[in-house]
Amino acid sequence: MTAGDTHTCMSCGNTFTGLYCNKCGEKIIEPADRSLKSFLSSVLIALTFADSKFFRSIRLVVFNPGFLSLEVAEGRRVRYLRPMPLFFLLNLIYFIFPIIQLFNATLRTQLNSFHGRFAESRVVAKMMELGVHDITSFALIYDQKTTSLAKMMVIVFAIVFSLPLNLIYRTRNRYFTDHVGLSVELVCFNLFVNALLLSLIAAIVGAYISEMVLTAILVTTNLYFIVRSGITFYEDKGAKLILRSLLMLLMLKVALEVYRAILFYVTIWSL
After folding, report:
1. What is the distance between the alpha carbons of residues 95 and 157, in angstroms, rounded to a whole number?
2. Could you give the dihedral angle defined by the CA atoms of residues 120, 121, 122 and 127, in that order, rounded to the nearest 10 degrees?
3. CA dihedral of 200, 194, 113, 147, whole degrees rounded to 10
4. What's the chain's average pLDDT?
5. Could you tell me if 225 and 245 are in contact, meaning their C-beta atoms sit under 8 angstroms apart?
6. Fewer Cβ atoms within 10 A, N terminus or C terminus of the chain?
7. Please, are residues 42 and 51 in contact by the beta-carbon 8 Å criterion?
8. Which residues pair with 7 in a beta bridge?
9. What does the alpha-carbon distance between residue 225 and residue 245 come to, in Å, rounded to a whole number?
10. Helix %, strand %, coil % of the chain (to 5)
11. Whose CA is closest to 155, among 178, 176, 186?
């Protein structure tokens, strides 16, 4: 088979000369394309390309928050993994390995939250429905179920947090999907730094991270992300940057509580 041969495209039926259909772009599959060498070459190229994009993107998320979302929002996307694919990759690792349950909330946490009174009534009703009379036994059932759901519902948190961004930065010529992209980047930052990396460090040094220490780390790292992304993504500066960053940190807490409430009712419904 040569490049000058005439072919009929298997996809669109067009008759053409060469190896690529001039109508739909379909390539003629040659025997060499089915060889082991071709397969291994494709795998190597795919892995090398994906790895370079992953490491380039995650480095930006950690050391230059907001830049990846800025590049994507302005149409420069080829060299990076966009926030959403990066999120799915990190969340897959988060789902597989037993690490800090950053976006999870136990039954005890839910009952002590702002919607605790309503949560308690739903727990009592669900216990009666399941025939469970011991709150400790029900907590074990609930915690096991909500852990798996939390890892699948993290994207809900990103969407919830993007809503106040639309109001806080409504004059910054950013669209809804731009704010969602930054929210997803924030989730990626937390999954990599505060879940994966922090868990790895704790495991290596054999340290136990108390709830107080974990809270301090989360506040500090997220404030870092918010300030840096405010400068890079929203071009904020001065007193407005400080005020908006503190407001975003507050909205981050609100978004987390709303997400946990959603997680609670989804978990109760699925039991």
Report:
1. 16
2. 90
3. -50
4. 84
5. no
6. N
7. no
8. 16
9. 9
10. 70, 5, 25
11. 186
Neighbours of 222 (CB within 10 A): 20
Question: Bridge partners of 16?
Answer: 7
147 neighbors 101 (Cβ within 8 angstroms): yes
Residue 45 CB-density burial (10 A; 0-12 exposed, 13-18 middle, 19+ buried): exposed
Give per-residue pLDDT as tens, 113-161.
888 889 999 999 999 998 888 898 999 999 989 988 887 888 899 999 9
Domain range list for the chain:
6-30, 37-270
Q: Please, are residues 156 and 259 in contact by the beta-carbon 8 Å criterion?
A: yes
Q: How far is CA 149 from CA 30, 154, 174, in A?
A: 46, 9, 31
What span, in angstroms and rounded, lies between the C-alpha atoms of 64 and 80?
Answer: 14
0.70 exceeded by the pTM? yes
d(CA 98, CA 104): 12
Contacts of 183 (CB under 8 A, 6+ apart): 158, 159, 161, 162, 165
Per the DSSP assignment, residues forming a β-bridge with 17 are 6
Residue with tokens 């590049």: 71
